[in-house]
Amino acid sequence: MTAYRIGIDARLFGTAQAAGIGTYTEELIGNILKTDTKNEYVAFVTPETAGVFPFYSPNLTKKAVPHKHYTYGEQIFYPRILQKAKLDLIHYTNFNTPIWLKGIRSVVTIHDLTLWFYPGRKNKSLLTKWIYRYVIQKSCRNAERIIAVSEGTKKDIVKYLGIDPERIDVIYEGVAPRIRYQADPKHIEEIKNKYGITSPFFMYVGQWRAHKNLVRLIRAFAILRRRYNLDYQLVLIGQKDKLSPEIPATIKQLGLQDVVITTGYVADSALPNFYSAAEAFVFPSLYEGFGLPPLEAMAQGTPVISSNVSVMPEILGEAALYFDPMDVEDIAAKLYKFASSYKLRQELKEKAGNQVKKYSFAKMARETIAVYQKVLGSISRTE
Question: Is the same domain home to 364 and 274?
């Protein structure tokens, strides 16, 4: 077997605003190095994360790149760094690629088309939307192969970007080992005391974005308490966003300040304690490319109550209780159905444990290496 020099764009590793892609990149590299000792790998990281990049291997080189994602430097100067690295292949772990780079074969992972449908307040200008659409289309057209993290994402790439489905490989993600560890009862009590959690609670983990549908979840939770008189709390974990003032405003309007808890950012290392302590994980999202948080909850044996749209049924299968995310009454009804049925709670716990076994970052890495081999197998060493 010929050895090749493969680059992996890891600039999103360790970034809070792209935590999911950072986790994907970290698990990809770590598991590739366990599997492939033949090829050489170059991880392109930022100067800020170079010192904490956790992998060392004889076939891994780390290269710090001062040009961050979504910048002009990424398009103008980053290509020179890639060309100097003398790569046979570069794997971009997100759509933001140097779109005019020539001479290096590429693979790109597309996690979702969220910004296509839900640009958010930061990206609502016509110019910003046009740039995003141009870059993601160009990145996919430049790539030899495209990795989609779900069948749903693949369908979106084909439909909205006009890409030949034969060029797309669907490779599922997994659950990181740091999320799978046994929760500590002492730490569970500590987080309850810290955040004022005094009752059984539903939890959510994720960003404050329009497509995450948190306002409807909060309104449904208000119905649950008012109509069914259930003494539950709702814990919303994730970085608070000043561009989403409707979330705290809804909590205040409905008089839920004492029972809806917004924690702000919580480190991954603390999440298993929240998952284990929660009665259920609630995922009201309107659109996802894969949806890691509900699988992380399942890895802790936590039941999942989820929206029934986008990729959620594909990824969660029969292991979740589903609701219509546009219907506040239906969300409230499903929360009550869960809370009032011990049998249902136990069934969902059992199904959760079985469902999460289907996903593995080790398997993801093996399948990604196979994609590399598809591309590299066509290279003549005289090129």
Answer: no
- Give the mean pLDDT of 108-133: 87
- What confidence tens digit (pLDDT) does each residue in 217-238 have? 999 999 999 999 899 999 999 9
Q: How many whole angstroms separate alpha carbon 54 and alpha carbon 238? A: 24
Q: Are residues 134 and 198 in the same domain?
A: no
CA distances from 200 to 83, 127, 217, 279 (A): 55, 46, 17, 6
Q: Residue 348 is part of which domain span?
A: 179-356
Q: How far apart are CA 137 and CA 161, in angstroms?
A: 6
Q: What is the pLDDT of residues 340-354, one digit of tens each?
A: 999 999 999 999 989
Write down the pTM of the prediction.
Answer: 0.93
Is the separation of the CB atoms in 135 and 96 below 8 Å? yes
Q: Is 119 exposed, middle or buried (0-12, 13-18, 19+ CB in 10 A)?
A: middle
Polymer length of the chain: 383
- In angstroms, the CA 185 to CA 277 distance is 9
